[in-house]
C-alpha cells in the first residue's frame, strides 16, 4: 500500500472516530450556544434562538441530554449556554454537574429558549443566537456536528470560513469513495501497530457505557433484559451492545467513542468486536487491528451515505463489526465479504425515526443481523447476487446501499418528522 494511502486512512480514523458526550445532534446545538457565550461579556441570557435542519430536529426531539434527566433541543441549548466548554467539540457538556441541572432546566422551560425548523436543504445545519443585554452573538454550523463556519457579534463578522454546500462531501469522504473494502482490510491488518494504538480508547469508552447500561437504570434497559437470558456468546454481544446504547441515549454523562458523527454507530462498530475478542482471548494487537478494521469499514460504507439521513446507519456500522469479527475468527477476507453481502440481504434500509431510547432496539437489530450474517459466511453461505441489494462485487453492494440511503429514502425524513410532531 502506498504511504499516501496509509497516511490518509490514519487521518480518516482520527477524524471519524472521536469521543462524544451525548447524542451528537443536540450536542451540535449545545456547541453553538457555548460558542455564543464565549463572546459575550456577561453570563446573563435574555434569549436563545436556534434554527436547525430537519434531521437535527428529528434526532434531538426524544433523546436525553446527558446529566439533565430531560430530552430535547431546548435543554441542549440551555446546557451549552450555561455550562458548555466552547473548545471541547463533541464533549462540550462533559463537565455538567448535578448542581447545574436546576438552572439549566429553569432556563430551558422558560420562554427565553426558542427552537425552529430551518428551511435549508442541508442534511446537517444549526444556527444559534444568544442575546444578552445590548449584545447578541450568532454561531452557524453545517456539514458536520462541530464545523462552525461563521460567528457574528452585534451583526459584525468575527469569524468566517467557506460554508459547506448543502450535500458536499469532505475530502476524506472523497478519498474513501475511491477505495475498496480489500484496501481497508489490507491497511488494518498490515499498518504499523503504533499508528493505530489509539483505537484501544474505543474499547475503554464504549465498554464503560455498556457496563453502565447493565448496572444502572437507563433507557428501556434492553441490554439488561438480554443479559438475563442465555449466556452464549451471541447473546452476550447483543446484551453488551444494547446496554451501551441504553446508557448513551438514556442520559449517561460518559463519553462514547463515536463513528461517522454518531455514538450509536461507534458503539455498534466497537462493542461486538470487544466482546468477541475477550471470548476468544486474542492478543492486544489482534484486538487493535480488529477495532481498526471494524471502524474503518464503517467509515468506508458511510462515505457513500449522507451525514444524516433516513437510513439507520447502525446497520452499516454493524457491517464494520462483521468484518472485525471475521478477522478475529478466521483472518479470511473472502468470508468478510460474504458477511457484508449477507447483511445487505437482511436489514439494510432500516429507517431512522429519530434518536431516543428506541435506538437500543435498532442497535440490537443491526447486531443480530450481523451475527446471523457472519455465522452464514463462516459456513460458506452467501446470499446470491440475484437478491435485492446484494451484488457479486461487495464494493458495488456498498455503493448501492449508499444509493438507497441517498436517493431511495430521500422522501422519508419529512414524513417521519411530520408524524413525530403531530401525534394525537
From TrEMBL:
Q: Taxonomically, which superkingdom?
A: Bacteria
**GO MF assignments:** L-cysteine desulfhydrase activity
Any single GO BP term? L-cysteine catabolic process to pyruvate
Q: Where is the Serine dehydratase-like alpha subunit domain?
A: 186-417
Which stretches are annotated as coiled coil? none
Query: So what family is this one in?
Result: Belongs to the UPF0597 family.
Q: What is this protein called?
A: UPF0597 protein FD29_GL000554
Organism whose genome encodes this protein: Companilactobacillus mindensis DSM 14500
Amino acid at each position: 500500500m502506498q504511504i499516501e494511502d496509509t497516511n490518509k486512512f490514519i487521518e480518516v480514523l482520527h477524524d471519524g472516530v472521536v469521543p462524544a458526550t451525548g447524542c451528537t445532534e443536540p450536542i451540535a446545538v449545545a456547541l453553538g450556544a457555548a460558542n455564543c457565550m464565549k463572546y459575550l461579556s456577561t453570563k446573563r441570557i435574555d434569549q436563545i434562538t436556534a434554527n436547525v435542519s430537519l434531521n437535527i430536529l428529528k434526532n434531538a426531539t426524544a433523546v436525553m441530554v446527558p446529566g439533565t434527566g430531560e430530552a430535547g433541543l431546548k435543554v441542549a441549548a440551555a446546557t451549552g449556554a450555561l455550562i458548555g466548554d466552547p473548545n471541547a467539540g463533541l464533549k462540550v457538556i462533559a463537565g455538567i454537574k448535578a448542581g447545574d441541572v436546576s438552572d439549566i432546566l429553569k432556563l430551558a422551560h422558560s420562554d427565553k429558549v426558542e427552537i425552529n425548523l430551518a428551511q435549508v436543504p442541508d442534511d446537517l445545519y444549526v444556527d444559534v443566537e444568544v442575546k444578552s443585554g445590548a449584545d447578541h452573538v450568532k454561531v452557524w454550523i453545517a456539514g458536520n456536528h462541530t464545523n462552525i463556519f461563521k460567528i457574528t457579534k452585534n451583526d459584525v463578522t468575527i469569524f468566517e470560513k467557506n460554508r459547506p454546500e448543502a450535500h458536499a462531501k469532505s475530502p476524506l469522504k472523497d478519498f474513501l469513495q475511491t477505495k475498496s473494502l480489500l484496501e481497508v482490510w489490507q491497511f488494518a491488518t498490515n499498518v504499523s501497530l503504533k499508528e493505530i494504538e489509539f483505537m484501544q480508547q474505543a474499547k475503554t469508552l464504549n465498554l464503560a457505557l455498556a457496563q453502565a447500561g447493565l448496572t444502572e437504570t437507563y433507557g428501556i434497559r434492553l441490554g439488561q433484559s438480554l443479559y438475563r437470558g442465555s449466556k452464549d456468546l451471541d447473546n452476550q454481544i447483543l446484551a453488551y451492545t444494547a446496554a451501551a446504547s441504553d446508557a448513551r441515549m438514556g442520559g449517561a454523562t460518559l463519553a462514547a467513542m463515536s463513528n461517522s458523527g454518531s455514538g450509536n454507530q461507534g458503539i455498534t462498530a466497537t462493542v461486538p468486536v470487544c466482546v468477541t475478542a475477550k471470548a476468544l482471548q486474542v492478543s492486544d494487537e489482534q484486538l487493535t487491528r480488529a477495532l481498526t478494521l471494524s471502524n474503518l469499514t464503517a467509515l468506508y460504507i458511510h462515505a457513500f451515505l449522507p451525514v444524516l439521513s433516513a437510513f439507520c446507519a447502525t446497520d452499516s456500522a454493524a457491517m464494520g463489526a462483521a468484518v472485525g469479527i471475521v478477522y478475529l475468527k478466521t483472518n479470511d477476507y473472502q468470508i468478510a465479504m460474504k458477511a457484508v453481502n449477507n447483511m445487505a440481504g437482511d436489514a439494510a434500509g432500516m429507517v431512522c425515526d429519530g434518536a431516543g431510547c428506541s435506538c437500543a432496539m435498532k442497535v440490537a437489530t443491526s447486531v443480530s443481523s450481523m451475527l446471523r450474517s457472519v455465522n452464514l459466511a463462516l459456513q460458506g453461505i452467501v446470499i446470491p447476487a440475484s437478491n435485492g441489494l446484494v451484488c457479486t462485487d461487495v464494493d458495488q453492494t456498498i455503493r448501492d446501499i449508499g444509493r438507497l440511503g441517498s436517493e431511495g429514502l430521500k422522501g422519508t425524513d419529512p414524513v417521519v418528522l411530520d408524524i413525530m410532531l403531530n401525534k394525537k
